[in-house]
Amino acid sequence: MRALRDALVVAALAVYAAPVAWQALTSLTPEAELLALGRAWPSRLTLEHYRAVLGESPLPRALVNSAGIAAATTLLATVLGALGGYALGRLRVPGRPALMLGIVMSTAFPAVATVAPLYLLVRALGLRDTWWAVILADTSFALPLMLWLVAGFMRELPRELEEAAFVDGAGRLGALRHVVLPAAAPGVAAGAVVTFLFAWNEFLFAYTFTATEASRTVPVALALFPGVFEVPWGDIAAAALLASAPPVLIVVFLQRHLVRGLLSGALKE
Amino acid sequence: MSGDRPLAVALLAPALVALGAVTAYPVARVLALSLERRVPVFGIADFVGLANYRFLAGDPAFWNAVRVTLAFTVVSVALEVVLGVLVALALRRQQRFRAASLALLLLPWCLPAVVTARTWEWLYHPTAGLVSRLASPLSGPANWLGDPSTALGALVVADVWRTMPFLALLAFARLGTIPASVYEAAAVDGAGRVATFRAITLPLLAPVLLVATLFRTLDALRAFDLMFVLTGGGPAGTTETLTILAYRNLFQTLQLGVGAAVAVVLFAVVVGVAWAYLRAIDAGEAAR
Prior knowledge:
Chain A is mainly alpha-helical.
């Protein structure tokens, strides 16, 4: 029974490890051997695909664009979300239940429903093919979850926390900065990480609002990866691994905090 | 504390302005667009009332997209929930490999969907892909993404691979909060495994599963990246969901009015599903 279960778990692990391992092996296989059926293992491992992708492809520029867009989106959404979430979580806001419902509902909006009007707006404002077009769309798309997470987290903090600060002569904003925000940091940080991952991975807005390498993000560059006569599977594999590195590293390093911060909201009854 | 009100408004205003400009306004605008005949290349922009919706009602491509969207959503989400619960149960009982399993499960969750799409595109390569290499002794050579009979199934497999971990991790976390004493009591009463699962585990898991299923259903209805990159809606429209049909009309054939109408239909479906789930969750809570 136990052996059977172990075998099943190993099989399940293989299903999850194999596609990634296969992609990694592909990225190290010489071009000529990629489509050869006889061999299971390449005759030698090579870095030629990484050299090609980092040297003469749109990917390096796309990595810079993605880093800038994701960082700016995270910063904007975190500031707006922390301030708004504080108001929703700890202050008396007129029409709060309706607002919270609207915020939850707006997380359900399909991006494809808003992308066409946004495209017209972006073009009218002269923002087409700029970072700002993608940043603004991504920020407002990430904002509802951020507001909801922060508001929920701040509601849980004890009242006495701020009252002690008031006694010490701090105003509302002083208490927010020195007492409430530090106490709510795990929730805000979890929201910031999720926002960064979302902005790094987002495809529809970035694909629609950008037109050239000047502002294309990593997912767009990967989707449009150039091939002259045939699909460059090895280069694509190398590019896919490089594109995955930032989100994977973030999750590896922050795994414990991230899971705790997110689940504490999800598992509350 | 009524003096807080101006402060609350001031703190909330920037977020609400951003949401209003980049979410609420486009939603209103897309509704208006769907009532127009608008073909920018010919400079056409006329108000036509519900003509776009009447056109869709008689358009086979639209009904095909509805069928594809429903099939993709129902099959993917059902597989994800069942497999996710099984994986969570297995992980709970498993001591070995648990840390490695959890780390591996987080991996597809954080990968960009486009990366997943291009990875599976290569896995499905008709001759050299890993899937083809493993399956060809049984299936013979198969063009998984190019054959109308297998393309949607191939998409579902890639989507389940990508999103099942989210459900498994949520269910796993919930199982961890069930006290062991509950199971000990059940064992004392002589309850078997299946009976314990049905009487204890499943009811305790249900609220989390319902919420997770809601999120997954909404995501599946709105899915775009995977099919756009993997199949582009082909072959022969067998993977053309409402999102792909809307995007094709909006940005490729440039029939903004028709595309907007498709987007509005999808929007209505999403809101309807969310509302139905929230009702079900409320009813479940009232019954307890």
